[in-house]
Amino acid sequence: MADGKLSIALKQQRPIPLDIAFECRVGEVLALVGPSGSGKTTILRAIAGLCRPERGSVSINGQVWFDSARNIHLPPHRRRVGLVFQNYALFPHMTALQNIVAALGHRAQAERIERARQLLALVNLDGLDGRKPSELSGGQQQRVAVARALAREPEVLLLDEPFAAVDKKTRRILYAELSELRRSLGMPVIFVTHDFDEAARLADTMCLIHHGKLLQIGAPREVLARPASALAARVIDSRNLFKGKVIRHEGDRTWLDWNGRPVEAMRQDSFPPSAAVSWVIPATQVIISRTDGDAPRITSNLFAATIRDLAHLSESVAVTVVVDGSDAPRLSMTLPAHYARRKGLQPGTDITVALVPDGVHLMPPE
């Protein structure tokens, strides 16, 4: 491969505003994440040639697929793109094998059936080649759609909400299969999702998009733990977003004033003393420091609080607490379900919460 990457720069005002640029390298999985209507699917369609942006460029491995300045716009059939739609878009009257054969028109007819069977085996569908889509589960239909996309021998694989139509158990299986499949693909993979956990599980890189603009790009866990702005924090649904003021920097720490409460954070020199800031802490970095005689796990950022709500999940409990003080701020945290049961935690329970200093992340003020 030439330069081994897909490069995208897109700008338009209508029908969905876009002002975005990023790259995805061979072997990389990149997730486009953001609210509905933010332009994620439009980006996929622009890469595939299904829509023509007002300005910008799309190139892969040194080949230009779109360049508005040079009036280049290759039609979809001239772009080696594998595209999997959210509803899979399989031909209902064809078998799984026939659906894949239909995408192998570029191969000699004598090769098509054998190659289609190879692709079915690649996606773990051996023995199901004679079934029609109506005879396949949602997860099996998704696998057929991926196999059909790969039949075109694409240079890039695009997945539009590929796991939205299957149940949670099937989704976990497909996650594992995609993680395994990516090792043999040797191409950029871009997928659209609303699910931040899904992006963190599958992607090497996350593009956080809002109203067609790129708010932040980076490793998923970095984006989720350290949003670049208060807007980015809201888009990723950070519950623990607050305002504060820098008091001082001392050693490897920065101290904040949180409405009269001192908060210790890791040192962040880009915000000078007296600077107003927004700050955030992930729910996983808010812990119960002590209750019923437990020894404190950390000795700073300790605040008296009262449990307001508990939402029982499968293996954990999402807890909302109200911190003591006239402003009564709310903090969200996640606890193991067994711990909450053992301690008898319930609404109204008085506790002490601790904010892990290394989890406190500062951002520019709004």
Summarize the structure.
The chain is α+β, with helices and mostly antiparallel strands and 366 residues long. It has helices at residues 40-48, 96-101, 109-122, 138-151, 168-185, 196-202, 220-225, 230-235, 337-343, and strands at residues 5-12, 18-25, 29-33, 55-60, 63-67, 72-73, 81-84, 156-160, 189-193, 205-210, 213-218, 241-250, 253-258, 261-266, 276-280, 286-290, 302-312, 316-323, 330-336, 350-355, 361-363.
Question: What order do the helices and strands come in, and which of them pair?
Answer:
Blueprint: E1 5-12, E2 18-25, E3 29-33, H1 40-48, E4 55-60, E5 63-67, E6 72-73, E7 81-84, H2 96-101, H3 109-122, H4 138-151, E8 156-160, H5 168-185, E9 189-193, H6 196-202, E10 205-210, E11 213-218, H7 220-225, H8 230-235, E12 241-250, E13 253-258, E14 261-266, E15 276-280, E16 286-290, E17 302-312, E18 316-323, E19 330-336, H9 337-343, E20 350-355, E21 361-363
Parallel strand pairs: 3-9, 3-10, 7-8, 8-9
Antiparallel strand pairs: 1-2, 1-4, 4-5, 5-6, 10-11, 12-13, 12-15, 13-14, 15-21, 16-20, 17-18, 17-20, 18-19
Return the string of H and E elements.
EEEHEEEEHHHEHEHEEHHEEEEEEEEHEE
> Structural class of the secondary structure composition?
alpha+beta
DSSP, total strands:
21
Identify low-pLDDT runs: 291-296
Order of strands, main sheet, comes to 7-8-9-3-10-11
Radius of gyration: 25 Å
Quaternary state of the chains:
single chain
Tell me about the largest β-sheet: 6 strands, mixed
User: What does the overall shape look like?
Assistant: globular
